[in-house]
Specification:
two-stranded parallel sheet; alpha/beta; 44% helix; Nitrile Hydratase, Chain A; disordered N terminus; 3-stranded parallel sheet; 11 helices; 5 strands; 2 domains; 210 residues
């Protein structure tokens, strides 16, 4: 395994998500009572990232790369520009690198120190992505972490771990499933999940997307 990361063992985080959620709710309530925020506006933002942006932007990037070798090459050279050409840029997605899964290598993305994540491409980060257990174990035992997500790789397959930072975020381009040669870009995008673009899953086969 090769890993691109800088790990700070003295950087501690709160494991108690229930406590954190309670604090967030209390803060939201206080700010609402003071008239500083509009809960309806927050709901719209959250709904947009969960259902409208979500992972759909990234899935279309992947599908286009699968269908168009020229676009895939552009992604390899300059993912930021290639992704921006589709209109996907902005919040925490300004500087991107696309990493391609191959028969020899599987890529996995983590942010060891916090939760840097390309919102404009993948939407809201999953709770587990922020969890200290994932952030530490993805580097120490990536094969074991993947197995817990249901991804069991051959022992001779290399796993490369990429550590997102405030300056650079990563998008995994999963391997294209067999039997998808005649599918449209939208049909291909339906095979690509958020987790596959983080590296904790693989693309679905056509029959699994029904």
């Amino acid at each position: 395994m090769s890993a691109n990361h800088h790990h700070d063992d003295d950087h501690h985080h709160d494991n108690h998500y229930s406590d954190m959620q309670a604090r967030v709710r209390a803060l939201e309530t206080l700010l609402t009572e003071k008239g500083l925020i509009d809960p309806a506006a927050i709901d719209v933002i959250v709904e947009t990232y969960e259902t409208k942006i979500g992972p759909r932007n990234g899935a279309h990037v992947v599908a286009k790369a699968w269908r168009e070798p020229e676009f895939a090459e552009w992604l390899k050279r300059d993912a930021t520009a290639a992704i921006a050409s589709l209109g996907y840029t902005g919040r925490q997605g300004e500087h991107m690198r696309a990493v391609f899964n191959t028969p020899e290598t599987h890529n996995l993305v983590v942010c060891t120190l916090c939760s840097c994540y390309p919102w404009s491409v993948l939407g809201l980060p999953p709770v587990w992505y922020k969890a200290p257990a994932y952030r530490s174990r993805a580097v120490i035992d990536p094969r074991g972490v993947l197995a817990e997500f249901g991804v069991v790789l051959a022992e001779d397959k290399n796993i490369r771990v990429w550590d997102s930072t405030a300056e650079l975020r990563y998008l995994v381009i999963p391997e294209r499933p067999d039997g998808t040669e005649g599918l449209s870009e939208d049909e291909l995008a339906a095979l690509v999940s958020r987790d596959a673009m983080i590296g904790t899953s693989i693309a679905k086969r056509p029959e699994e997307a029904q």
